[in-house]
Design a protein that fits this description.
It contains 21 helices and 4 strands. Helix 3 packs antiparallel against helix 4 and helix 14 runs antiparallel to helix 19. Strand 3 and strand 4 form a beta hairpin. Helices cover 75% and strands 2% of the residues. By secondary structure, it is mainly alpha-helical.
């Protein structure tokens, strides 16, 4: 049976198959038992994600295409899928206590996380424009629903509606770009597009690239297509915001790399200008717009916009070193973001969750360990050595310098300094302002996530080799 499974070409897609079948099975459990199945389905979803993570580790180590060439499995796909699965598992761990206290625990929630994760993984392995769009819509449709899953909360419903309407617009732009690319190349396969596009790109193909980049930039929440991000991040339930800021960011950046490096390597000068513009604008808006924020989830929204700008520096370089920088950056960004959201989920007094930055006032006196962990996440996001965030920025800036993108690297450094202001301001509020009433005990799920992320952020400098060397291997697989 296993021989037949491998011979039919399903083996490389084993992680996605596990997630899809697991979601179907858990849907039957939920339909049969109703709301009594919430804990069972949540635990089952967590186990399914872990099984898919194991499957990622045992899939073929070579570069394999299947399903008529529309699906590709290589070191890059395996690496990014592992990050997405870790983020999805962390999201479920962050969710259970929050949903129970907010009284909207439903068995559909972990199922939607599974389906969105399946779409994310399909995006990462997409080898043609049709598979790319199918994965993107599977990811997005589930995300629209979980943003609005707290139906009794007006802000949650508003977040889901805004995300849906603007997401539909961006999907239309991406489809229009894909149709232009198909019209000028006669194929939707990324390798075939790369083979047919040589020399100067026709104006129609360049226009298609612009629309493709606009659609992908929306999914990345990169400026100037970031307008939905602060409102959706603030209005969505906090665990959902963590999922959008982590798993979906990793999948979207992997998609961007797959499209531009895999489909248009010979016309890099055409899309490089777009990526440079988007990266600069994202870094500027992420740094300056966050300064006046008083809601910590909105601040994290602008922080994510800025961080995507830094990651896009590696894509603008268009070299193996640049892609390695992206991979390292996203792995570390995942730890920093999930760790920060674990602390945000602990900002609870009684059954009331607070989101004001001033609510952290004096937290170092009332919750010394939690305040220290959040301070490390913030210092790391600011890029202060020897924390992991410093190395994340070092790799993308180094790639930009090697590719002679000196202006981009300089703007990245300057905006990092500006962004450090609002990160350090939070640390100042925690350590030097008068304490406010203490928060409740941090639940087990967020506490486990916070400990794991803190270890990565604080101790990365001691053993960076495994992450960096595997990222190099993943980057090289795109250029072989």
């Amino acid at each position: 049976m296993s021989t037949t499974f491998m011979a039919t070409g399903f083996w490389p897609a084993l992680p996605e198959i596990i997630l899809a079948l697991g979601a179907l099975a858990l849907t039957l459990v939920g339909a049969y038992r109703g709301e009594r199945s919430t804990v069972i389905v949540g635990t089952g979803a967590f186990v399914v994600i872990l099984l898919a993570l194991v499957a990622v580790g045992i899939t073929p180590r070579t570069r394999v295409t299947t399903f008529g060439g529309s699906y590709i499995s290589d070191d890059f796909a395996r690496y990014m899928k592992a990050l997405v699965l870790l983020a999805a598992a962390a999201t479920i761990a962050l969710s259970s206590d929050f949903m129970e206290r907010q009284r909207f625990a439903r068995f559909e929630y972990p199922l939607l996380i599974l389906l969105s994760t399946t779409g994310s993984m399909m995006m990462i392995s997409a080898n043609d424009l049709i598979a790319l769009y199918l994965g993107l819509e599977l990811q997005s449709l589930a995300a629209y629903v979980i943003c609005a899953i707290h139906r009794d909360n007006v802000r949650s419903s508003e977040a889901g509606l805004k995300y849906f309407v603007l997401g539909a617009l961006s999907s239309g732009m991406l489809l229009y770009g894909a149709s232009l690319v198909y019209g000028f190349t006669g194929t939707v396969s990324l390798p075939a597009i790369a083979a047919s596009v040589q020399g100067q790109a026709p104006i129609g193909l360049t226009l298609g690239l612009v629309f493709l980049a606009a659609g992908i930039a929306f999914k990345l929440a990169a400026a100037p297509f970031h307008m939905w991000t602060p409102d959706v991040y603030e209005g969505a339930p906090t665990p959902v915001t963590a999922f959008l800021a982590s798993a979906q960011k990793v999948a979207a950046i992997a998609l961007a790399v797959r499209v531009f490096i895999g489909g248009f390597p010979s016309v890099a000068e055409s899309w490089q200008q777009i990526i440079v513009f988007v990266a600069i604008l994202s870094m500027l808006i992420g740094s300056f717009a966050a300064i006046g924020q008083t809601n910590i989830k909105r601040l994290m929204a602008y922080s994510s916009i800025g961080n995507i700008g830094y990651a896009l520096i590696g894509l603008a370089a268009g070299t193996p070193e640049g892609i390695q920088g992206i991979i390292v950056y996203m792995a570390i960004y995942l730890a920093m973001t999930l760790g920060a959201f674990a602390v945000i989920l602990g900002m609870r007094r009684g059954d009331t969750y607070v989101e004001g930055i001033d609510d952290l006032s004096g937290a170092a006196q009332t919750h010394p360990w939690r305040a220290f962990a959040l301070a490390m996440m913030l210092f790391s996001l600011a890029g202060i050595p020897p924390l992991a965030g410093f190395f994340a920025k070092f790799y993308v800036f180094a790639a930009a310098i090697q590719a002679n993108l000196f202006v981009l690297a300089v703007i990245g450094v300057v905006t990092s300094v500006v962004g450090a202001y609002y990160y350090i301001r939070i640390v100042k509020i925690m350590y030097f302002d008068a304490p406010r009433p203490a928060f409740e005990r941090l639940p087990d799920g967020p506490q486990a996530v916070l400990i794991a992320c803190s270890v990565v952020v604080v101790l990365f400098w001691m053993i960076p080799a495994p992450l960096v060397s595997s990222a190099e291997s993943a980057a090289r697989s795109l250029f072989n």
